[in-house]
Write a structure and sequence with these properties.
By secondary structure, the chain is of the alpha/beta class. It has two domains: about 230 residues, Alpha-Beta Barrel (TIM Barrel), CATH 3.20.20.70; about 60 residues, no CATH class. Helices cover about 40% and strands about 15% of the residues. It contains 15 helices and ten strands. The strands form two sheets. It has an eight-stranded parallel barrel, surrounded by five helices. A two-stranded antiparallel sheet has the order 9-10. α8 crosses α14. It is globular. The two termini are about 35 Å apart. The mean pLDDT is about 95. The structure holds flavin mononucleotide (FMN). The site of flavin mononucleotide has 29 residues, from β3, β8 and α9.
Length: about 325
């Protein structure tokens, strides 16, 4: 028995489970392990310092798996944007067939991806943006609720409302993101109208995720209360681990500080140190409220098998066991 959905059929993956793009974390080893587990992983393009490095990372991933995997292209509204066109060209030239876009409007990238037979899964945090992306012609939506790690947007609508609200308007395959970590979540997402789940925090805390063991152990020890929302007053909210740095950033901005005042605290080169040397207070690092549901560090293979197995059991036993035969009642 396997769970088959519009998402698994359209994107050609075995299980309706996705590992979304993760800055500094979404590298070849993790993505290949996710692919080998029958789920869909995304290499994070901008984690690679140059487009040439992305080409190498894709080649490395190919050596580790012969299953499909994709690349995440996070489109950031920055003053000095990375060379998106060159990253995009590498994605095309490397023969990648699935791209996860996120951050802002994927329109400038769609024609080239589609001309080259690449399916685009666009991640967004509101029903209006999901509808807009559907109208632009993307191939799938990943709707990211307030629970998520990274950028939850400014609407603060959790998945319980966001997923069914989006599902009412989205006809293309749609997966649910934010706060998912186990089989119960997968069944809930399917019940709410999604065709699968996308997870960041949960995949970050696996054997193959190439980050320091201290970070994984902190996630296991952490609870759903241990995140902060930084950049709220700047309307560029990010959910990150609660630590000395993120709490300081929140305090400075709440006092009326501007980005300039926290720029050094939130610098990427500080954040990456957390993952490399395991100093949990070295900088900002992303994790979501799903931390409260993460209690171990499995391999990706164990994790995906567990999630799918648990989901199948819930559907076929727990839920179907709740259905009573009305006719028998009438007879009695
Ligand atoms: C460490 C980390 C880094 C992330 N970086 C990115 C990123 O660069 N681009 C992106 O689209 N999403 C990024 N995300 C968001 C994830 O792809 C995913 O949408 C999110 O983690 C889902 O919420 P969850 O953590 O509750 O599963 C990141 C998440 C984490 C945990």
């Amino acid at each position: 028995m396997t769970i088959t959905t519009k998402f698994t059929e359209t994107f050609g993956v075995e299980h309706p489970v996705v590992q979304g793009g993760m800055q500094w974390v979404g590298r070849a080893e993790l993505v290949a392990a996710v692919a080998n587990a029958g789920a869909l992983g995304f290499i994070t393009a901008l984690t690679q310092p140059t487009p040439a490095d992305l080409a190498k990372e894709i080649a490395k991933c190919r050596e580790l798996t012969d299953k499909p995997f994709g690349v995440n292209l996070t489109i950031l509204p920055t003053i000095n944007p990375p060379p998106y066109d060159e990253y995009r060209q590498v994605i095309v030239d490397s023969g990648i067939k699935i791209v996860e876009t996120a951050g802002s409007n994927p329109a400038p990238h769609l024609p080239m991806f589609h001309e080259n037979g690449i399916k685009v899964l666009h991640k967004c945090t509101s029903v209006r943006h999901a509808v807009k992306a559907q109208n632009l012609g993307v191939d799938g939506i990943s709707i990211d609720g307030f629970e998520c790690a990274g950028h939850p947007g400014e609407d603060d609508i959790p998945g319980l409302v966001l997923i069914p609200a989006a599902s009412a308007k989205i006809e293309i395959p749609m997966i649910a993101s934010g706060g998912f970590a186990d089989g119960r979540g997968l069944v809930a997402a399917l019940a709410l109208g999604a065709d699968g789940i996308n997870m960041g925090s949960r995949f970050m805390c696996t054997v193959e995720s190439a980050i320091h063991q201290n970070v994984k152990e902190a996630i296991v020890a952490g609870t759903e209360l241990d995140t902060e929302l930084i950049f709220r007053p700047l309307r560029n909210t990010a959910r990150v681990a609660s630590n000395a740095v993120s709490r300081e950033v929140v305090e400075i901005l709440n006092r009326g500080g501007q980005f300039e005042d926290v720029k050094d605290l939130v610098a990427g080169k500080r954040g990456v140190k957390v993952y490399e040397v395991g100093d949990l207070d070295a900088g900002i690092w992303s994790v979501g409220t799903a931390m409260g549901l993460i209690n171990d560090i499995p391999t990706c293979g164990e994790l995906v098998a567990r999630i799918v197995g648990e989901a199948e059991e819930i559907i076929s036993e727990r839920l179907s066991g709740m259905l009573e035969d009305d006719e028998e009642e009438n007879v009695a």
